[in-house]
Amino acid sequence: MHDHVVAVDVGTGSARAGVFDATGRLLGKAEHPIIMNRPRENHAEHDSENIWSAVCISVRKAVEQSGVAPASIGAIGFDGTCSLVVRDVEGRQISVSTGGEKRFDTIVWLDHRALQEADFCTATEHAVLEHSGHFMSPEMEMPKLMWLKKKLPGTWMNAGYFFDLADFMTWKATGSLNRSRCTLTAKWNYLSHEKDGWRKDFLAKIGLEDLQERGHLPDDTIPVGSSVGTLTQEAASALGLTTACHVSAGMIDAYAGALGTLGGFADDPRALERQLALIAGTSSCIVSFSRERRPSHGMWGPYYEAVFPQSWLVEAGQSATGALLDHIVRMHAAGGEPTAALHQKIAARVAQLRAEEGDDAFGARIFVLPDFHGNRSPLADPHAVGVVSGLTLDTSFDGLCALYWRTAVGIALGIRHILEKMKEYGYVPDTLHVAGGHVKNPVLMELYSDATGCKVVVPKMNEAVLLGTAIAASVACGLHRDLAAAGTAMYPGGDERSPNAGKRAMYDREYRRLLAMYRHRAELEAMD
Fold first, then answer.
1. Residue 263: inside a domain, yes or no?
2. Which of 133, 222, 387, 488 sits in a 20 to 30 Å window from 325, CA-based?
3. Domain that holds residue 190
């Protein structure tokens, strides 16, 4: 009986796999690192065969750990970052790297090499941009493809397949060229609410009129929870599964996390609209759903049926959050390699110093704009830079703790800035469901509630991304009727934290200071 599923999450630095039963219990989990090539500033590349190998290792280990027989696994699902995989006309690897190494055939999501191309797309003011917050991010696929055509014409002329990473995984597993509605709608400017999803006039305007033919990109897409097909013999052998195993349509990792945290609300659209998923790790993504189309500036979307049927999704985010705290630890004289243990040591000392000095006094003159890798939302400015005001010659560990604390405050206030803008566009969020690495950081978790004024819910099992992918896979093999039924059956419940009303005035003041810093930065940059 096919009463289990496997979920695979391909992140920035590793591939993870988990085995789940029909109630959402995680029975086995494994992880394997993947390599990243950083040949120059703003360039980041993966080797897709290295990723596939890491996936296979992780799946085999997770299944072994679970004790589940491969024959009982009805489906496998894949989610991934919005990285661009390029293959040649024979389906073989082809280089996207200025270094020319063939194995580096994937441009990583965080790669910002295509800033100029993104600006060009934004300047077109094409109607398609109404579904990406009226701007184009260099983290989207169109600018990356434009850069590839312009800078590596040999690769472009020999290319035969373009994939979002999750779609590459389903192709590798099944041989099917079907693409997910989730990936194409969210990252390829495909308009899933229209009869003809590809806006050919937009493609022509940005010089990609041959994109669909060259990349084997279909006219139609496959909704989340659908089966793309079953595993090929080769893929089944590599993964340690059977050829009867279905492969569900791929998902963007943050959207899988949103499904994992909010799936239990899918049968109540009114309640769903008040919930936000905050998937927070290296970067942070906020995902919200709406019954109505609500266009905005500075947020990605609205995307139709990117996850739930007959529902619009909007995404906002911060490009560097966990990565920013790592950077602060690494750059400070009292810091070092930002291990989990060092973060815990800093968090513990921050708590002590706040208790001794008071929240108003500790690091009080340090102010941080957290835009060290641009401002994805709500300013939609990939060129934005970070600002730190209030530094002294203090190189002590306590000095590091003060800077760390104030950086965390800046990150949380950045989330508040996003939420305030969302409300202006008609969104009504009041509850943050937090998942990802930040759940382990007590400094951030306190701030996400107190600095935003929102109730925070933490799932009892902090594997929301894997769970969301498992929910979709369970529908693909018929284990559950639909996403709403699967979400209800598999959600583990969560622990709630309400904001501390006594700190509201303090964080209101800090928020006004954040907005003032944005104004001052703009004034400085505008001076002749």
1. no
2. 133
3. 4-249
